[in-house]
Amino acid sequence: MEIQETTASGVTAPAAVIAGAAEEPKIRTRGCNVFYGDKQALFDVDLDIQENEVTALIGPSGCGKSTYLRCINRMNDTIDGCSVTGSIRLDGDEIIDKGIDVVLLRARVGMVFQKPNPFPKSIFENVAYGPRIHGLVSSKSELDEVVEASLRRAGLWEEVKDRLLQPGTGLSGGQQQRLCIARAIAVEPEVILMDEPCSALDPIATAKIEELIDELRQNFTIVIVTHSMQQAARVSQKTAFFHLGNLIEHGDTNKVFTNPDNEKTQDYITGRFG
Amino acid sequence: MSTDHIVKSFDEDLRKLDNIIAEMGGLAEIQLADAIDAMLKRDAEKAERVIEHDNRLDELETQLNERATELLALRQPMAEDLRAVICALKTSAVLERIGDYAKNIAKRTIALSQTAPIGPARTVARMGQLVQGMIKNVLDAYVSRDAEKAEDVRHRDEEVDALHTSLFREVLTYMMEDPRFITSGTHLLFVAKNIERIGDHTTSIARNVYVLVNGVAPEEQRTKSDASSYTVVESPTKEGTAG
Fold first, then answer.
1. For residue range B194-223, what is the model confidence (pLDDT) as tens digits?
2. In 10 A of CB A207, how many CB atoms?
């Protein structure tokens, strides 16, 4: 069953197909509008993010993809004058609700940023900080286990196991980013948001992160903003194309990149406009 | 090929292409074998089955086209990987053509089974077996990325061409000496031509493999020794007919 809705700007944005069993998607967005002061950055966004999939958000600079990403973990709260309206539900729980515990939300929804930003602490402490603060472990040995498990999952353990007490900032760019991913998954989130996680990395480091993302999606839901369409094509199962604050098209990555519905989408991915 | 890709699913995608090609190749080989066997045994039912089974080859070609397109769009393959995808696309089209030729042989077999048996059919069967071997070897070369093996197949087509040329003369002679052989002779000529074309197509798969492995086209053109197009057989004198 597919619902077509015409947004305020007159662009038809198909509501995501809800499978026959009417299963609630992991993240369900309806009528999301975002303003920076008077300037509207997102217009009536309807989007479903499915569990255990990688959804890529693509579009030219300023299209609203990062703005949308930041709605999901309420990071837009930290921006003065930014207002978000509409409905965003994580497993049925309304996120935009004033009464929601934002700290808890950000443990359920982790984030990895463009520039790797390890804490100015040891490698061990970088990963241990979150679980300790959230009270997820009750003993030192449990903490050790969580740190090792997270570093293993991030594909970093072998490279750092003999220097856990050395500063995180001493690692290479690719390693730092994997450390940030380990840090994010240590608090056992359900969703991992990634904002251009590889744009500061070389091709080999990027490939390693992409392989990691492929493994992680078995246990997490991942939403990744990327200005590289090629990366979106490689890494995701669903792709959402944003343009000037509107969601133009959303669907299977294979379809979006081989036979998109919307001409604007085709123009963007073939490099006919930026 | 060297080590695996860092992103393992990329390797899986490439393997799936190879698997479809291997399946298509195996099927094409069987189709040819069954068509020739049906011809020798004058088995119209077997021929009908060959005609039916051609659908599977068409299906596989469609599947391969879809997967290859997906791979190009989603993985942006480079160098050897890119050549592998292009090689798969070209080879699947050829294998589908080979299947069509086998189907055509089967169709002619149905007609042949209703006419007088004709000696040269055995020579045609031998041509068929030669070409069968070529298909098998070129698929082996493809899967193991063996350019030398592929080159070897390319050169074996000479023998097939030579057989075709002599077969042409032989059948013409049969038909001239006894008009009762004209129907079966004509069908047989078409069958032989189909087999000869399959041989040619197999060499183009060999060429694809060479390009895949070496990144450049092979230097010499393959020898084309099929002279049937130029063949003229003088009719016997009015009285004389060989026994």
1. 999 999 999 999 999 999 999 998 887 766
2. 18
